[in-house]
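Project standup — Tuesday

K.O.: blocked on the structure for the chain from last sprint. Re-posting the sequence here as requested.
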Amino acid sequence: MISINTNSAATSASYNLGKTNVNLQKSLNRLSSGFRINSSFDDAGGLAVSMKLSASIRRTEATATGISNAISYLETQDGVLKSAGNVLTRMAELATLAQDVTKSTDDLANYDLEYQSLIAQLTALDGETFNAIGLVDNTALTVVTSEDGSQTYDLGGGTGGTPVDLDGVITSTLTGDLASTANAATEAGLITTAITNLGLMRATNGADQSRLSFAGDLLAVNKTNLEAANSRIIDVDVAAESTQLARFNILQQSGTAMLAQANQSTQSILRLLV
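H.V.: unblocked you, prediction finished:
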């Protein structure tokens, strides 16, 4: 049947051309953005999963930053403890020198002068801070080690660990002096105990750094795997999408040509009317 009011061929060609234009636009959006999913319409389920993975990746990055900052804190703390160890070592040397029976009262006074100055230095070290947080003043800190916050680590030797307290090490030496060989002998014994306790603190500090370093490594691996999983969902396959783009370009050109041909087909009716 030949009809003027209805041109089914043109309607069909127009519909197909419209669909091709929509697909072509999607393909262009994907290639220009680099994402397979640019709106919820593209893949509602995939977008929901990708959003959760993206949030997990950001939390992992934030947790890793927190661990890195905690390690920096521990490194600074170890520097203070090392300096305190050097001070105590010199104090031990002075206490030993002061036990020499050939030293006069004036000699002992000279030794004690430096000894008291070093006690003041230990007191100053006890007040050191990191971003306004005490380094060696018995400050308890808990580090989050998993992106969901379910795992934590207490600095000072793990769960319930003992915070570093330099004051506890040096308190016994704060009132001592080298005014006599007997006093020097007493101070030498106290300093030996203080050095032993300080060594334990540095060992604990090293254990904390080791633990957090491994926790940071795990977060880095998890982040890599999460990014790979998210990429498979949301990132566009450039090679495949480029092929689709070429296909839709050809379909658009052929659809446009067929629509024009369908519109011209009704002109043949005019010949019947002449």
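K.O.: great, moving the ticket to review. Helices lie at 8-33, 44-97, 105-125, 166-170, 181-234, 238-265, 269-273. Residues 76 and 106 are 39 Å apart (CA to CA).
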